[in-house]
Give the backbone structure.
Amino acid sequence: MMIDLRSDTVTKPSAEMRKVMYDAEVGDDVYGEDRLMNELQNRVADMLNKEAALFVPSGTMSNQLAIRSHTKPGDELICEYNSHIFNYEGGGPALLSGVQVHPLYGDFGILNIDQIKAAVRPDDHHFAATGLIALENTHNRAGGVVYPLPVIEAISNFAKTNGIRTHLDGARLMNAVIASGLDPAAYADQFDSVSLCLSKGLGAPIGSILSGSAEFIDTAHRFRKVFGGGMRQVGSLAAAGLYALAHHVERLVEDHDRAKDLAEVCLELGVLEHDLTWTQTNIVLLACPEGDAFELEAKFEKEGLLVSVVSEKRIRLVTHLDFTDKQLEKTKQILKIVLG
Ligand SMILES: Cc1ncc(COP(=O)(O)O)c(C=O)c1O
């Protein structure tokens, strides 16, 4: 059997999760009548100390609805150069919101307040108006790095003072919560909106939740319908999400420990991209000599390990719910065979 470390999205619903999905009561969510979905949305809104929340099919839709709801065409969105929003959402801000993206290079994905201050546009008709700042926590392409809360607070306070909205792409927010020991609301309080994915480390088959003020969620709800994301009998998906929140958050520490273990082996083999301090959650980045990543990917696959190529110099391993200790040992062997 192949070991799949391409992403934490590859997990399959467990037998217990499938059971609650099978048994779920359903209603029509476009009419707001799916009881379990209302429960899930309220649960996440409470956890993040927000007035309201909205279930959407994907993290991409969640981010794009946030951008559409916070901005107007011609605005500018500040985000990090390696962020998901800038790299992997198909030019969504331009296509769906008429928004220009202003990407800034972060240090391991982390932007600092001075960069933000320098990037915000003056109130002058030559410039696009800075409408939104979006941060990503944990930062996927930077290797699952956790944003330090004081850095977020400085950016958030500056944004508030200057009337700029803020959004958190918290696809892996719960990984940051487990790694930092902070309350989810401590992060969420700093942002006007937060997107949280249920289908990554939390192991649900589908779904993300966008949260914010009641007014913001009302706007996002309208755009979700317009973008074709209004769904009907979603109780089974809500049941999976509720199960994931109840059973799959605390255990993320296991994914982090296994990632650290893999990072140590990669360090010994001389291929860990940075030092061990940068493997903070469930992502390990391997540095490959130029042009080698696709070749290495093929060699790993031959030995029974699926990895993802981030660039020709970089390979990513992501630990997750379906990655066991037995697979961990086998993965270490494969790393040593291919790289030793
Ligand atoms: C940080 C981040 N944001 C958003 C997304 C988008 O999620 P989805 O694949 O559900 O659209 C991903 C997906 O991997 C991600 O890593």
